[in-house]
Amino acid sequence: MQLAKIVEKLGGTLVGDGSLDIKGLGSLADAQVGDLSFLANPRYTSAVASTLASAVLLAKDWKGECPCAAVYVENPDRAFAEAALLLSPPPVGFAPGVHPTAVIAPDAKLGEGVTIGPHVVIQPGAVVGDRSVLVANCYVGHEAVIGSDCRLYAHVSIRERCVLGNRVIIHDGSVVGSDGFGYTPDKHGVWHKVLQLGIVEVGDDVEIGANAAIDRARFGKTRVGNGVKIDNLVQIAHNVQIGDHAVMASQVGISGSTWIGRHVQLGGQAGLAGHLHVGDGAVVGAQAGVTKDVEAGSFVSGYPAMDHRKATKAHAHLMRLPELKERIKKLEDLVTALQQREDKA
Amino acid sequence: MQLAKIVEKLGGTLVGDGSLDIKGLGSLADAQVGDLSFLANPRYTSAVASTLASAVLLAKDWKGECPCAAVYVENPDRAFAEAALLLSPPPVGFAPGVHPTAVIAPDAKLGEGVTIGPHVVIQPGAVVGDRSVLVANCYVGHEAVIGSDCRLYAHVSIRERCVLGNRVIIHDGSVVGSDGFGYTPDKHGVWHKVLQLGIVEVGDDVEIGANAAIDRARFGKTRVGNGVKIDNLVQIAHNVQIGDHAVMASQVGISGSTWIGRHVQLGGQAGLAGHLHVGDGAVVGAQAGVTKDVEAGSFVSGYPAMDHRKATKAHAHLMRLPELKERIKKLEDLVTALQQREDKA
Amino acid sequence: MQLAKIVEKLGGTLVGDGSLDIKGLGSLADAQVGDLSFLANPRYTSAVASTLASAVLLAKDWKGECPCAAVYVENPDRAFAEAALLLSPPPVGFAPGVHPTAVIAPDAKLGEGVTIGPHVVIQPGAVVGDRSVLVANCYVGHEAVIGSDCRLYAHVSIRERCVLGNRVIIHDGSVVGSDGFGYTPDKHGVWHKVLQLGIVEVGDDVEIGANAAIDRARFGKTRVGNGVKIDNLVQIAHNVQIGDHAVMASQVGISGSTWIGRHVQLGGQAGLAGHLHVGDGAVVGAQAGVTKDVEAGSFVSGYPAMDHRKATKAHAHLMRLPELKERIKKLEDLVTALQQREDKA
């Protein structure tokens, strides 16, 4: 697409050759000749000079030099997203219909306009809401309920009696409703399974990444609130409660019965012990090990997790521990010398 | 179900209205009007006053006030489990039979009363024991052996020649027998695959969570002992040996050839280096990084993992490091002042 | 197989009974009577005396005693690998052909000699190169391209438009091309999905373990270079770039847009923040938390990751913090006493 045409659609001021044919998109470092790129994060300022891109979207007030065509816009990040839609192939769609290889129990209920892809299995009593798409090889257990306008990618399992809201997206291989990890030891240390009789209830507008696992409750419900976003390979144990609009990055692990407030943010690989309370709006840093309740609105990190500023300071000091030890050694020598002088005096 | 009827079945002393209709179950915080709840963990004592539950199971010697019907029992936890069975829908069952969409090699051997669900694939030479259930979309590789009374949920892979004992439960998406991670670099730093010729052997009464991965041995066997319980998203590398009745929480990672003793407990997200020996009954804390052998019966935590009490103390001090540094600074000033006074004297 | 025959094929010097019938293979600790074992890692020297193996491969210059037949060879590790090939059943093969239960779009292109196993789904516009094997229940999305001589084990998902090179191996349950984790919050803290319009491009000779997840780019490409080896349960976020011949152990997590150089090695459970640059040949220790760029050729570990030697020293001191604190306390008392003496004088 001609650069001038893109600028016409996005708005903004073009400095350079509008007749350029833009073929693709890329970050400053990644872009090739013929690509459009953008500068949104100041971290990448120095990458402008060396980019191979043929045109770059820049903030209106940007003062630097640009080695190629420059387009000055209000918000380069948003403009790039719009340009991407102009230049990218449209997202893949799935035509409604039930594939003949799908195995659907006679008493399962399918809404209007659903897409049930190849090799999907839907067990007795299950419900799939209007316009929901089960891409391929998905499993929907007995009496499970999937809302409307959901999309389940390949190899997703929704286990028996679990409930998904509307507009839920689940990426390939994720599992909703596996048994909680519950055993009681006998006097020989042999573990006996505690039946996991509850379900998982997922709210509206939730997105779950690939190969995540959310366990069903021992009794009652493991609950994922509305608007929650869960990244790949996240573990959510039985009876966890997650408030609306919480987000958690990849490989987070939440132990049983922990309560996560609304708008909480959990960094990648963070681990939370069981039976904790994480207040609304709290932020937990990546790789943090949370061993006690977290106050609403606070920011904790480190292991064991503490106030983030304290943790950062403490870890900075950790690196200087060998030096501190030297200073203590020197002080000891000095004090000993002083004592000896005193004793002599 | 009427509360009086539940109390009749569980035993215990009822204080309150036995004619109440109990409709569901929930934790103290989670329960709704009409639900039965319980107090087992003293941590939740304060939740009794604010619960919406219509009845609560309490320990015989509990002295607090209860805002609703109270049932005093020997063991509230166990009583609640029994009540749950009375009130929950029965666990889902799978009728014996082979689904017509399953693809089963002619020379595979199926025991009596097996359930082979839709889209299951069983390769040549494989064996499935009596009454085992393969729920749907499972893969059983060439010459793999599955014992009796096993249950494999959707999308489980048992790779070629691996062996499962009896009464093994594996949740959705887990993989038994993927290749170990073994390569040798050449002089250009190019990695060449080392063939992984061994298998995985899983004992009796093992349960494996969702989306876990257990690698086959380079040679010989990766071994999971009897009664071992493995949570979701756990990684077990090639040639690991796991003793009977060990348990490991979610997202644990065990590197190659490490030996885990009987009754060992590994906390969530703990990581163990390769070629280590973890003695019988040892406990490894959540998120611990284990870099050397762990003695039988010991409890280690932290990174690098050390005696748990030492680790806890060390980490508590870590937080106070900035304060320690201030104290050192102050000492240095005082000592300098003392020296100057001495020198003048 | 007779021991003498094995020695004939491997080369080396036999001390012991060549007529022994060798039935299997195992590590020194694992081997049974009738097995062949080997000593390559000096760590295991003491295990020779107690092995049950009937024969052991030893280095030419090994001086210790051997309780069974000994075979002295140039390289015991390599000799054992060769012996394993002699004694192991051959790796499983898959005959070319398209299974009748596979669902393949009419316009998908299949190369010569491909194996498309049971219940595989191949969407419109997809391409599978010559001799590639899709074992079973795999999903290949719209317009995805799989090179030649690849092997995809059961339940692998290659999402729309993603591209794999030649000789790529992917183990069971892994996902290539799930959506990146991208949302923008509105003023109410509600997260709105940012379309993930890019793809994943995987080079030649890459191996990916079980249940890993590699996200597609927001725009452009998430890129995995040639010869890269990725272990089980690894997370690679959108727009990550991985240089040729990098290796990463299980449960590693790499955040969005991070750039990993050639021949980089990442230890198990290491986590890398987003938008970082990890230079060629760098090594990141297991469980490290990398929060800033890593120089080429350096070795970092710990949290936050720092020079490995410094980190090791700092962590060793961490354990001795309570003792340091005692020393500070004692110094304070001494200095106070000295001051009082001075003041009196």
* Second CATH tier, the architecture of the largest domain in chain A: 3 Solenoid
Output the CATH homologous superfamily of the largest domain in chain A. Hexapeptide repeat proteins
How would you characterize the largest beta sheet of chain A?
12 strands, mixed
Shape of chain A: flat
Mean pLDDT across the residues of chain A is 95
Can you walk through the features of this model?
3 copies of one chain form a homotrimer. The first copy, chain A, has 5 helices and 38 strands. The relative contact order of chain A is 0.06. Chain A has a 12-stranded mixed beta sheet, covered by helices on one side. A 10-stranded parallel beta sheet of chain A has the order 7-10-13-16-19-24-27-30-33-36, with no helix packed on it. A 6-stranded parallel beta sheet of chain A has the order 17-22-25-28-31-34, with no helix packed on it. The first copy, chain A, folds into 3 domains: 85 residues, 3-Layer(aba) Sandwich (Udp-n-acetylmuramoylalanyl-d-glutamate--2,6- Diaminopimelate Ligase, Chain: A, domain 1); 212 residues, Hexapeptide repeat proteins (UDP N-Acetylglucosamine Acyltransferase, domain 1, 3 Solenoid), CATH 2.160.10; 29 residues. Chain A has 345 residues and is α/β, with parallel strands linked by helices.
